[in-house]
Amino acid sequence: VEGRRVRGGDDAGVLRTASVVIATGGFASDYTEDSLLRKHRPDVLKFATTNTKGTTGDGHKMLVEAGAKMLDLEDVQVHPTGFVNPADPGNMVKTLCAEILRGEGGVLVNRWGRRFVNELGTRDHVTGEMLRVDNETLRFAIVLNAKQADKAFTHMGLYQKKGLIERKETLEDLAEWGFWEGGVTAKALSASLKEYDQDAKKGSDPYGKKFFHNVPMSGAGPYYVGVVTPVIHYCMGGVAISPGGDVLREDGSAIPGLYAAGEE
Ligand SMILES: Cc1cc2nc3c(=O)[nH]c(=O)nc-3n(C[C@H](O)[C@H](O)[C@H](O)COP(=O)(O)OP(=O)(O)OC[C@H]3O[C@@H](n4cnc5c(N)ncnc54)[C@H](O)[C@@H]3O)c2cc1C
């Protein structure tokens, strides 16, 4: 490797350097023609992503062409909660609904207003349960009470500003939310949340949850709600490098002058 080709507007040229470091991130947003997701994890292509539009594994593709050894490209992490923006539901790039919301006690419910998972389970577990419960729409609701929302106020402020979280004053308002399937009633929601509060008192629920923060959930309101869906989040695989960052070929030798760092 003797340098790199650069392009800026209509100008292009070759920048000669003694070494080149590839640090172009992962490929969690690679829905392109020569998609690495399509090649290594076609099953996740149905999910949107938390990564920016440009996270398309350009570096990985260059490294493959240069004869580098690639590792574990099938290890792609799916995060259970990316926000579905009601103003732009089809956008494949989604804002992450951070774990703090579930950490402070926010509950996940399906389109029928029922809980289905230990919200504090691993990302894999929660995503797996979502696929089991509603593989058709992949849409779920996250519901927080006022205390939980208050504890996560920095995040909640941003999410509300972006229109990703709505405030519902009462259970009746919550029941009228357009998300629910087939007329979920305030009574049914109340029963679901009361059941959760009883589980909290016992310190366990049918899904293996043991920590119930900022209960009760079945109070008067207000409630804070948003729609979430599983999203491609992180690429664990990448290129083989030496402890010094040299990019390695299949035979373990270093490609002179070529280095890599980061999510590659
Ligand atoms: C929403 C979100 C939350 C996260 N939260 C955490 C967290 O809490 N803790 C944690 O440890 N990790 C977190 N991560 C993961 C972490 O951000 C990434 O793993 C990390 O940023 C990867 O660093 P990187 O330098 O490899 O790539 P990036 O930070 O993605 O940087 C790659 C850079 O290369 C540029 N680039 C790409 N292609 C080209 C090209 N062809 N030409 C020129 N430039 C190009 C990009 O524009 C970008 O600037 C999160 C990720 C996301 C998306």
UniProtKB/TrEMBL annotation:
It catalyses: succinate + NAD(+) = fumarate + NADH + H(+). Its EC number is 1.3.1.6. This is fumarate reductase (NADH). SUPFAM superfamilies: FAD/NAD(P)-binding domain, Succinate dehydrogenase/fumarate reductase flavoprotein, catalytic domain. Residues 14-263 form the FAD-dependent oxidoreductase 2 FAD-binding domain. PANTHER family: FUMARATE REDUCTASE. One of its GO terms (molecular function) is fumarate reductase (NADH) activity. It holds the Pfam family FAD_binding_2. Keywords: FAD, Flavoprotein, Oxidoreductase. It comes from the Eukaryota. Its cofactor is FAD.
